[in-house]
Amino acid sequence: MTVLVVAPGSAGDVHPNVGLALALSRSGQRGILLTQFPEQLPATLPNGVRHFNYVPFSRVLPCAAAFVHHGGIGTTAQALAAGSFTGATP
């Protein structure tokens, strides 16, 4: 599966990573937006981008093309353990 995984964490309102997911979808890249906070979601998601409240990182990261996240220690550790290409945007 070639997909970008975006997890903004508990950063508050719509996180810049959400914009990244939306921009990539316009280029044909599929995306998974992981957040349990509805205020971080745009009104509608474009085709190719799916939202999930929760997916175990251990299940999705090994299959991800890249993982963009908030930079928390636990999330970063899981990304490194999965060998995922990762970028943090606090």
General description of the model:
- With 90 residues, the chain is an alpha/beta fold.
- The chain has a single domain, classed as Rossmann fold.
- The protein has helices at 16-26, 57-60, 73-82; strands at residues 3-7, 30-34, 49-52, 66-69, 86-88.
- The protein has a five-stranded parallel sheet, with helices on both faces.
- The longest helix is centred in the first third of the chain and has 11 residues, at 16-26.
- The chain starts with a strand and ends with a strand.
- The model has no long low-confidence stretch (mean pLDDT 81).
Summarize the structure.
The chain has a single domain (3-88), classed as Glycogen Phosphorylase B (Rossmann fold, 3-Layer(aba) Sandwich), CATH 3.40.50.2000. 28% of the residues lie in helices and 23% in strands.
Task: Please give a handful of descriptors for the protein shown.
5 strands; alpha/beta; 5-stranded parallel sheet; 3 helices; Rossmann fold; 90 residues
N- to C-terminal distance: 26 Å
Domain module count:
1
SSE order? EHEEHEHE
Using the coordinates shown, work out and report the CATH topology: Rossmann fold
Number of helices: 3
Largest sheet: 5 strands, parallel
- Order of strands side by side in the largest beta sheet? 3-2-1-4-5
CATH class: Alpha Beta
Query: Which descriptor suits the 3D outline?
Result: globular
Per CATH, which architecture?
A: 3-Layer(aba) Sandwich
Helix content range? 25-40%
Unreliable sequence segments: none
Number of strands: 5
Average pLDDT taken over every residue: 81
Tell me the structural class: alpha/beta
Strand content range: 15-25%
